[in-house]
User: Which sequence fits this backbone?
């Protein structure tokens, strides 16, 4: 939707008021614009320019001045990032697409940013966190299934030490996921996840898993949102596993979480509708599945994508194939001291082909060791 | 996320400033709040209360005063609605959930509103608009398939008059949809839809289909958004058919459109990634499918649902089964003069069981004839 006041684009007016500010006021401007558009429809004057807009124009200019003068320009939005090439690439990209008189300006609704979760927003070693959840669920169900203690693959899940991957086939893993993720309602499952994530701790760091998110990435999410990006999770992990805590931890609401999923079935139970989680795969949001998941859920191509492994390659390809400026950023796990160091040979978060393509195509590769001042948020 | 300033909830402060205003300033407040939350994370003080907030508090109070005094309270947000029970029910509901000291207050992120499209936001008689599109596509493809002129079901599609449903079996209809909606990339299909919707006209009214949206519902969408609701389409129609124009026509961005869909496949074509539309059903977003689609895409239960037919019954059931205040609203087509009149016996938009349940459960039933001053937007 184009929005004009006396033949000037609204964003241009604001930019003219704040020429030195690199388009940053646009975050609030686009919200104000949306509000005004709504209001115009409310008042039945979607095409008109009533006196109301003359008043609004003055008020909003004042408002922007008041709001932005002391705030947005006072400090650095990415304080946990070292002042290296990665950070510069991020800031340059955001300024390019948000500056209203930039040739590469992107309207706010098209500022879609897609983030992988495991290994990109939080840790994934020594085993995926959802795998730890699955194992804990299997263990919690043993009292109801004592035979599992001796019956593989259950027995393997129960006996393998916490910090080790269980040696299972893909089929066996799927069986475990179905046992632990299906046969209950979506609400029941959400409650189980919420309870688990509130208390379960990493076997090596002793931290809550939600404390093993990456502070620089939390800042990046917030920085993008402050610049009117809509941030999405696009991850191979389970959609219903991430949603109960994504809003609290990342500021990403459930409707902006895309992940793998099982089939659901609407039923009436005692006269009340429920959604049953069936032991059947609905969608796998990994590799070739990521662009498909993006199209199904978002319906437009992201202009920025963030990942850490070969599972994100197709998402990077899809994102960067659009016209105009694009940002593809890979988190490279290079910090054995503060986190983990792994790439081409790793069984988890293998980074091989995507790394080659990043080098060939000039995508941004972040070295956690060199580019990040801190890894995890300081305890709150 | 709770947000406090000196132990007062931010929304409470604003409400205390504007006690007579029934919580309406909350639309902008919640945006300001989101902005501030983002900013707080930016500045690395997610738990703190720096001096910055004292400044912000004053500024935002001023801002709200300036912004809302002349605007939101100057006029009626639903001018095309008669002052009848339906309108009163809508306004009462919105005030109940947005008033911060209401026992039924709902935080902004949970204000999810789900709208059916066909027959709820735009007309669906004498044939679904997507059916008209399908037929036009089949006809447009005849030069490449001259044999279709005599081969059913193609021949039936080609020869039946524009204002009549083609007498086809469900299987035959599906064959036509696959022919016209698959075998091309998502981008190619989006372009075809955009071109068609810009020019195709209704056989009886001569209007563009996008001019056959309902003005009272456009106002309702805007009114809800101005009160920090997130508005979604949840419709049996094709997701890729609605997305190219939903933002322009309804203010609903593609990522908030849920509909039926075909399977997609990621491929590389001449070194560029594409998403092919396969001739295979992925999801049917109708009846029992609607709550499933809502869960898959939104991940939380709407607090308000709007529909017009039995296809919306399960969405109403799912929406109203949540705790707290709920709004279920049925658009009843009662206006043979200005639109169409149909319900229990109609082949399109049949309203029978959902009507009975609406009466039994006290859901709001809108009579288009009695409750709406105008049907379509005045020409722009």
Assistant:
């Amino acid at each position: 939707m184009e929005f004009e006041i006396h033949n000037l684009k609204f964003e241009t007016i604001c930019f003219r008021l704040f020429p030195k500010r690199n388009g940053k006021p646009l975050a609030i401007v686009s919200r104000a614009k949306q509000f005004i558009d709504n209001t115009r429809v409310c008042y039945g004057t979607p095409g008109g320019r009533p006196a109301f807009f003359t008043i609004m124009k003055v008020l909003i200019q004042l408002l922007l001045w008041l709001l932005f003068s002391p705030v947005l320009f006072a400090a650095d939005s990415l304080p946990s990032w070292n002042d290296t090439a990665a950070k510069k690439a991020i800031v340059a990209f955001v300024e390019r697409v948000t500056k209203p008189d930039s040739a590469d300006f992107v309207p706010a609704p098209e500022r879609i940013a897609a983030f992988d979760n495991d290994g990109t927003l939080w840790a994934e070693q020594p085993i995926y966190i959802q795998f730890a959840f699955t194992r804990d669920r299997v263990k919690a169900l043993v009292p109801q299934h004592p035979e599992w203690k001796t019956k593989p693959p259950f027995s393997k899940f129960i006996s393998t030490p916490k910090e080790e991957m269980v040696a299972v086939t893909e089929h066996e893993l799927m069986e475990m996921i179905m046992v632990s993720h299906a046969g209950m309602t979506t609400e029941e499952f959400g409650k189980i996840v919420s309870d688990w994530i509130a208390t379960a701790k990493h076997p090596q760091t002793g931290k809550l898993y939600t404390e093993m998110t990456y502070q620089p990435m939390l800042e990046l999410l917030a920085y993008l949102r402050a610049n009117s990006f809509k941030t999405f999770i696009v991850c191979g992990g389970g959609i219903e596993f991430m949603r109960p805590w994504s809003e609290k931890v990342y500021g990403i609401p459930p409707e902006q979480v895309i992940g793998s999923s099982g089939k659901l079935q609407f039923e009436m139970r005692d006269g009340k509708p429920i959604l049953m989680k069936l032991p059947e795969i609905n969608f796998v949001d990994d590799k070739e599945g990521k662009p498909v998941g993006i199209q199904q859920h978002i319906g437009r191509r992201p202009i920025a994508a963030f990942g850490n492994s070969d599972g994100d390659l197709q998402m990077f390809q899809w994102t960067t194939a659009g016209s105009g400026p694009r940002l593809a950023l890979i988190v490279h796990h290079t910090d054995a001291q503060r986190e983990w160091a792994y790439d081409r040979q790793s069984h988890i978060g293998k980074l091989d082909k995507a790394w080659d393509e990043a080098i060939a195509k000039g995508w941004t590769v972040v070295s956690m060791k060199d580019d990040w001042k801190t890894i995890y948020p300081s305890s709150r």
The longest helix of chain B spans residues 51-68. Residues 1-69 of chain B form one domain.
